[in-house]
Amino acid sequence: MKIKSLKLYDTGYCTHPEKIAYAKGSWKQIRFPATVGLLQHPSLGYILFDTGYAEHFKEATKKFPYSVYAKLTPVHFTEEQSMKQQLLLDGIHPEEIKYIIISHFHGDHTAGLLDFPTAKILTFAKAYEDIKKRSKFGTLLKGCLKDTLPIDLEQRMTFIDHNPSMKLAPAYGKFEEGYDVFGDGSLLAVDLTGHAAGQFGLFVHLHSSKIVFLCADAVWLSKTYQNLVFPSKIANLLTSDSTSYRQNIEKLHHLSQASPEIEIVPTHCEHTWDKIKAGVYYE
Ligand SMILES: [Zn+2]
């Protein structure tokens, strides 16, 4: 089975010195967009890959301890930029989103979850277990805002990594093991633990035979894997497992060389933003 279409959306941005994401960069503040993918599956309907920023992010970060998040990471978005509002403009109602795939539980990926109360949620158990065991304050240190998670999350959630994994074809480079999300070959999830525990990426197999790799936050900037220039050491404070983080970047580098026809799309890269501004639509 192939995915009919993939559209990317921009839900706002935060700012950080470039050097944090790219050690050879400057201390100048640059913008990191929070992007979201909308996939159309031929029989299952609409699927979101992450949910970006939404008003719930502002509500969650009003009070201590989560107000610290907003202070450390200045965030810019309007209500119109939430996925709910942008989808309505595209004629898609929240109930039409059948599944939401959450790559990891950082606030800029989960903030829109509350806007889609009927969607089933797919993620890795490894990612959820890491958040579940922590207190509200403890999750903040992991970049997660527990207040953005729906109260019925556990009833609606299924774990992709509870299925048996499969060996991937050589075309996926050093990503040798993955999970067939719906058992139909349309979406393959690969563990990208590093940036966050249990974070994963998604190989999207499109109707045209094109493959897009939504790699979430395995890198913030594409030039990180292109040039193998890693984030500054300060970023280690935000990283769950810095050894795996580097290994994933090396795997992305290898993939980009070995299978250049696979388009690698990181959530927060400026080039992903450029694609959205240019109206890129994958079929
Ligand atoms: Zn993240």
Account of the protein in words:
It catalyses: 3',5'-cyclic CMP + H2O = CMP + H(+); 3',5'-cyclic UMP + H2O = UMP + H(+). Keywords: Hydrolase, Metal-binding, Zinc. Its cofactor is Zn(2+). Belongs to the metallo-beta-lactamase superfamily. It comes from Paenibacillus arenosi. The protein has one domain (5-282): 4-Layer Sandwich (Metallo-beta-lactamase, Chain A), CATH 3.60.15. Strand 9 and strand 10 form a beta hairpin. It has 283 residues and is α/β, with parallel strands linked by helices. The longest helix is centred in the last third of the chain and has 17 residues, at 242-258. The protein contains eleven helices and 14 strands. The strands form two sheets. Strands 1, 2, 3, 4, 5, 6, 7 and 14 form an eight-stranded mixed beta sheet that branches. The site of zinc ion has 6 residues, from loops. Zinc ion binds at residues 104, 106, 143, 195-196, 217.
Number of strands: 14
What's the CATH topology label? Metallo-beta-lactamase, Chain A
How much helix is in the residues? 25-40%
Number of helices: 11
CATH class: Alpha Beta
The figure for the number of domains is 1
Please, what is the CATH homologous superfamily?
Ribonuclease Z/Hydroxyacylglutathione hydrolase-like
What is the CATH architecture descriptor?
4-Layer Sandwich
Into which percentage range does the β-strand content fall?
A: 25-35%
